[in-house]
Design brief:
With 146 residues, the protein is mostly helical. It has one domain. 57% of the residues lie in helices and 4% in strands. It has five helices and two strands; from the N terminus they run E-H-E-H-H-H-H. Strands 1-2 form a two-stranded antiparallel sheet. The radius of gyration is 17 Å and the shape is globular.
């Protein structure tokens, strides 16, 4: 049995990223009347629908909860891919510790869920930034070879 979750229709990451990006941003960005870059504006939740497994819907809700709790921080689209990858590695380490604590009877399942949602969120952020800034990946790879 599947549960309703928000997303207009399945699409490639680039299509999703482009749809979520204000027109003109790729050419240097747009600014609002207040002079705030659209790129730094918070992502906004919106109603969309797809059929997903109940486990996926519950996990997506945990991901969104974690994102909303961190809305006060710099938006991931302002970050470089290598920064996000480093943060993803740190979150994987935190997830490993949460699982070990849970199995050792020292931590609740909620800690595992929260850390798993953090890992998923950072993986999503990497995919989003790569879809929006594919040329950055080439620069990153060239720097790593040096």
């Amino acid at each position: 049995m599947s549960e309703q979750l928000t997303a207009e229709q399945p699409a490639g990451l680039r299509q999703i990223a482009e749809a979520a990006t204000p027109a003109g941003e790729a050419q240097g960005g747009m600014t609002t009347q207040a002079g705030v870059s659209e790129r730094t504006a918070r992502s906004v939740t919106r109603p969309v629908t797809i059929n997903v497994r109940p486990e996926v819907a519950a996990f997506a809700r945990a991901m969104e909860h974690k994102l909303a709790a961190n809305d006060h921080k710099e938006h991931w689209r302002e970050m470089r891919v290598h920064q996000l990858l480093e943060m993803l590695r740190d979150e994987v380490d935190e997830l490993v510790r949460a699982v070990a604590d849970f199995h050792g009877g020292m931590g609740p399942h909620r800690n595992v869920l929260d850390e798993a949602a953090d890992v998923a969120n950072f993986a999503m952020m990497v995919a989003d930034v790569v879809a929006l800034k594919p040329c950055e990946i080439g620069r990153m790879e060239a720097t790593e070879r040096e």
